[in-house]
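Section 4.2 – Deliverable D4.2 (structural model, holo form)

The reporting period included a commitment to supply a predicted holo structure for the target in complex with S-adenosyl-L-homocysteine. Inputs used:
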Amino acid sequence: MPKHPITTGKVIIAGAGPGDPELLTVKAARYLQQADVVLVDRLVSEQVLVQYVKPGAEIISVGKQCRRGLSTPQETINELMVEYALRGKLVLRLKGGDVSIFSNVLDELQALKAADIRYEIIPGVTAALGAAAYAGIPLTARDHSTAVRFLTFYRNEVIDELYWKELAATNDTLVFYMSSETLDGVVGNLVKNGIGADKLLAVVEQATTPLQQVQVTNLYEYAQNWTGKTFVSPALVIIGRVVGLHEQFAWIANSQSSESYFKPVAKLFTASTVIATEKVTQHVSRA
Ligand code: SAH
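Output (structure tokens):
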């Protein structure tokens, strides 16, 4: 028997919700209070960390921000989770929104399985649900839509011609993640395929944060008014007849500021430097 038996830790993969720190689940908050190490995405409110992380815990930001060419490699994130768990730590892997919507959770689960590390998964409020609630756009409102689809068009290959035709024809509400920069393409494809003129498009920037802004346009006026428009990140696109309900049911005024709620990814580091030095600067200032 070794003198100090090593007990393997555990990894909690949790969603933090889309922005408003109060949308964190009670369960995620409880684990945040217990965790020794928190590996956190960029699109997580700093308030969540300030409020719940216990003193002395390590907070490591492992954000990805492809637009700025600053992305923590997935491999690094996997290594950090595994390495800390093997050292007996309780690791909280905190992701923006929900864990399973447009995230790399599969890679992380595979890394944990391969290393035989125990884990739990805690869901979070995904951006589509946060944006829908805070913009007053019920996604499957009766008589407007019977279903909702979560999509992305961050690369051309992800949606082919046949699928665009289908998307233009359906009455399902369409929600596009990671697509505000390719919005001209989204609208162009839907218009080309004859999407109904009764459907509107909303872009919800920084949903659920105090800096939220909702902008709505008619798809057939988009080319004239919106082509080339840029949006504050993160932004979510909602298309469908339900978007028309925003005007009547909005309950939050648009922010007048175009500041960013989420801090940009500051710098990157590799797993080996973090673990070798065991000295991780806390990226968050505590209140
Ligand atoms: N797992 C996350 C999504 C990660 S993909 C979730 O469940 O919400 C990142 C994309 O999510 C962004 O490009 C944006 O389209 C959307 N997003 C995340 N947070 C958002 C927010 N507060 N407001 C608007 N869109 C958001």
